[in-house]
Design brief:
13 strands; 522 residues; Rossmann fold; 46% helix; alpha/beta; six-stranded parallel sheet; Serine Threonine Protein Phosphatase 5, Tetratricopeptide repeat
């Protein structure tokens, strides 16, 4: 790169770091064509495009540059593939996301970037949850590769069994903060039986907010472990003599699931924060409920299931934190408004086709889609192209981006349409608590049954469907019955508050019984 080009690059980098994306991109456009082909410039272009919501442009920038990186900077190929995987996942192309994350992992491993390789492979497993036709063989092959990667550099600690007067439970999470996982985890941390259990919280996050402060105020042993590597973290857990280690992140962002391969605790459980299998034989169990897992094992999973006779999610922390419910929208609009506030990446082409049929069967109905991707021009272009492909008229759809008043905007929809195979979790609860019924399709995988669990626990299993035809029929039937729709809108919050979904006392008791049972105590 020329000396003048390097100066422009540094200025553009500083502007990007200040989140002045348009100015940063303009600065890079002043570079000579030869300088714009420099690998660091290409990556900065991609970061700017990503942060500006220009995901399609970012994908083109990166795919057009693969040969440049192969020839001139193979060390940075993993960064390129990681960005591609992230971009493909955001726009809903899960298979391409998986492929690129695996390529990223291969390059990280090749250059001895072992921690990055683990992260990349975990990202691939995360992205696979959005593949509708994902087979058992594909899943198990993916998990096998993850285990091989960990076994290459990790050896499990010697087996151990403790005989503490109180069972020691360790919770490993990056989300002891304002976050869906934090809300769901809080009842277990606040309300545990102090005469039977001693709780340790291993925080691998850095957020400091009022929820984080509330966690720290609980009667627990608090460990800030974000800076520890896998081995040192495992050593800390072993030193604390944890009886049951509970991972609350799975393959989500900033996880430390790989520490399970070191076997720091005699019993290891995946809970709350992840929809699928960890893929590890070192994960003994998955905490779930009898709606999500009416079976002891599942071919998509390497773990056994621990089922709660109710909901394995408890939303009691959120009571009283939602805006007021307004009148049913169809009463003031004169037409039915369907909606989906789920991550746009969860909306498959097949679900759009089902929604097209629903809209056609309910005259004058509208559809509201809301996600951060839809707040950008390229995101809207992508959505509109997919909507048209599915046969949905654009004039019947409103696209909304992220906003701080998203909960209030549930007052704009009459019926929420759940996604599949990656169903909603917190968004489904948000919808119900805001008085909006949800139509959900039920699948075979654990993560395909969250909607079924939430609705069944609220006594609303009549809103779930076993197949696409039934999904369409139930959405239409509810749309055509204004009286039932109005009653649901008026009463759902009260129904949810009285259901197992917000029964923190019963929830904690059920989980603690499971803990005692699996270590052979009564």
């Amino acid at each position: 790169m020329s000396p003048e080009g390097w100066k422009l690059y540094i200025k553009a980098l500083e502007l990007w770091q200040k989140k002045e994306y348009e100015k940063a991109e303009n600065m890079l456009s002043m570079l000579l064509p030869s300088d714009r082909a420099y690998h660091k410039v290409i990556l900065l272009y991609a970061y700017i495009q990503r942060d500006s919501g220009k995901y399609l442009t970012e994908i083109k920038t990166l795919t057009d540059s693969i040969k440049i990186f192969v020839d001139k900077s193979p060390l940075l190929l993993s960064d390129l593939y990681s960005l591609l995987g992230e971009a493909y996942n955001i726009i809903g192309n899960a298979r391409e996301a998986v492929n690129n994350f695996l390529l990223c992992c291969q390059h990280d491993f090749k250059y001895n970037q072992f921690s990055k390789a683990i992260e990349s492979y975990s990202n691939a497993i995360f992205a696979s949850a959005g593949i509708q036709d994902f087979s058992v063989n594909e899943a198990q092959c993916l998990y096998s590769g993850y285990r091989d990667l960990l076994e290459y550099n990790f050896s499990p600690m010697p087996s151990v069994k403790y005989y503490h007067k109180k069972l020691r439970i360790g919770y490993l999470s990056a989300d002891f903060r304002h976050h869906p996982v934090g809300y769901l985890l809080y009842p277990l941390i606040r309300g545990f039986s102090q005469d039977k259990f001693q709780v340790y919280c291993y925080s691998i996050g850095s957020a400091q907010d009022d929820v984080n402060s509330a966690f720290k105020a609980c009667p627990v042993e608090w460990r800030e472990v974000a800076k520890l590597d896998y081995i040192k973290l495992a050593e800390q857990i072993r030193a604390d003599e944890i009886d049951i280690l509970v991972d609350c992140g799975g393959h989500t962002c900033n996880n430390r699931l790989a520490v399970f391969a070191l076997r720091p605790a005699p019993v290891q459980i995946s809970a709350i924060g992840w929809v699928g299998s960890t893929g590890l034989y070192d994960t003994d169990y998955i905490l779930t409920d009898n709606y999500c897992a009416p079976f002891e094992t599942n071919p998509f999973y390497t773990e056994k299931f621990l089922t709660i006779p109710g909901s394995h999610f408890c939303f009691s922390y959120l009571k009283g934190k939602y805006p007021e419910i307004m009148e049913s929208p169809f009463r003031r609009n004169g037409y039915i408004t369907f909606g989906c506030f789920n991550n746009f990446a969860k909306i498959t082409d097949k679900m759009l086709e089902n929604w097209s049929i629903i809209l056609n069967k309910v005259p004058n109905s509208k559809l509201i889609l809301k996600h951060k991707l839809l707040g950008y021009e390229e995101g809207q272009q992508l959505a509109k192209a997919r909507l048209l492909k599915a046969g949905i008229s654009i004039d019947r759809v409103e696209l909304r981006g992220f906003s701080s008043d998203y909960l209030q905007q549930y007052n704009d929809i009459d019926i929420a349409l759940d996604t599949f195979p990656y169903t909603g979790g917190m968004t489904t609860f948000d919808s119900l608590y805001m008085g909006v019924p949800v139509i959900s399709l039920v699948g075979k995988r654990h993560g395909e049954r969250f909607g079924f669990s939430l609705l069944s626990n609220a006594g609303l299993d009549m809103l779930t469907a076993d197949n696409e035809d039934e999904y369409i029929a139930k959405a239409r039937a509810l749309a055509e019955n204004g009286d039932i729709l109005s009653k649901l809108h008026e009463n759902l919050r009260d129904v949810v508050e009285k259901s197992p979904l917000m029964d923190d006392v019963g929830y904690v008791a059920s989980v603690e019984k499971i803990y005692e049972d699996i270590v052979g105590r009564d």
